[in-house]
User: Fold this.
Amino acid sequence: MELDIQCEEMSPSRWAELLTTMKSCKTIRLDDCNLSSSNCEDLSSIINTNPSLTELKLNNNELGDAGVEYLCKGLLTPSCSLQKLWLQNCNLTSASCETLRSVLSAQPALTELHVGDNKLGTAGVKVLCQGMMNPSCKLQKLQLEYCELTADIVEALNAALQSKPSLKELSLSNNTLGDTAVKQLCRGLVEASCNLELLHLENCGITSDSCMEISAVLRNKSSLMDLSVGDNKIGDSGLALLCQGLMHPSCKIQKLWLWDCDLTSASCKDLSRLISTKETLTEISLIDNNLRDSGMEMLCQALKDPKSKLQELWVRECGLTAACCKAVSSALSTNKHLKVLHIGENKLGDAGVELLCEGLMHPNCNIQSLWLGNCDLTAGCCATLATVMVTKQCLTELDLSYNPLDDEGIRKICEALRKPSCNVQQLILYDILWSSEVDDELRALEESKPEVKIIS
Assistant:
């Protein structure tokens, strides 16, 4: 049994009602429910008396250090079987880390700890690392984003990594680590016995100076499947170094996020080689890089390679125009694997989208999710988009936000949605102006097809 409640204010009567339900739940999720430390005292009792409880999510609640202290009393009882604990953005400080250290040291059932977006600081996370080094700790996933960590944390992290072969996922994004610390961390990861599968280092102050060491991790850790270094200024030279590791035969990368990395079209030659030859790669994000049409054309050529198995391509805000759309269309008509295309915030215009639709209509194309927000589209392309919607039954999600489609365009899209052959389940229409009459039509459509969700 699962309890999943989000964004609900808890009255005393409602809370009492839920406590009864929680006694038999396997999963409890209470994100954004205005909980406080007093609620944690009750939750501690639930943890203690409900041996079937394995997952507890309490993100975005003002629990504070006092609340975590209550929770940990339950977590430290022999009957506790909790495996996954989420405490993101709960107003915790380093004071909570001593209590959590005790749990890590004494509770081998706990395999996931998510404590990002709390002001734990370097001193606090050093204490957590001590708990990780206990032989009883079997932690597999550790999330420490936005924890106000500095370069001084790496020595303690590396010591914990050396002693923790069970660790599979490490997220340190949005901490001011810098190149020196990231290099040290990577050297530790290469030496560690853990089979790391996920490493997130977004917005960590990384430049091209760190990329050789990250590349070494990619070469030496064949278990690594998910790497995110977005929002770091690695540039084309850094990407070239990363690709040395990514192209290594032992690298089995599946998901690669390189958004806002100061890449240009010069990187697209290496990226194309990666997409066309690394058959494990299924998802790549290049959002907010100045690839331009020439770079996109190189990527499209790679997508046409039979060895390419890419399923998701994110190229939002990459300086693209209608000039690259013929190449994108050709790739769509050739690549059977691509399921998700984020190409919004590019000046494609109606003419560009008309070209895209030619590829989308091809029998080889299996796109399920298409994002065209803020692409300078008008009602002029909506008839063609409507044809795609009713013809391609694989298409289940369409984003047309921030385009001046007006009543005429929205009506054409609605007409397609009404057709039985249209399988679009989620239509996203943020910041588009339409009349009250069209608004009524949209609401009526949602009522007649409850499986369709229109988000505006």
User: Anything to note?
Assistant: The mean pLDDT is 96. The radius of gyration is 25 Å. Residues 178-191 form the longest helix (14 residues).
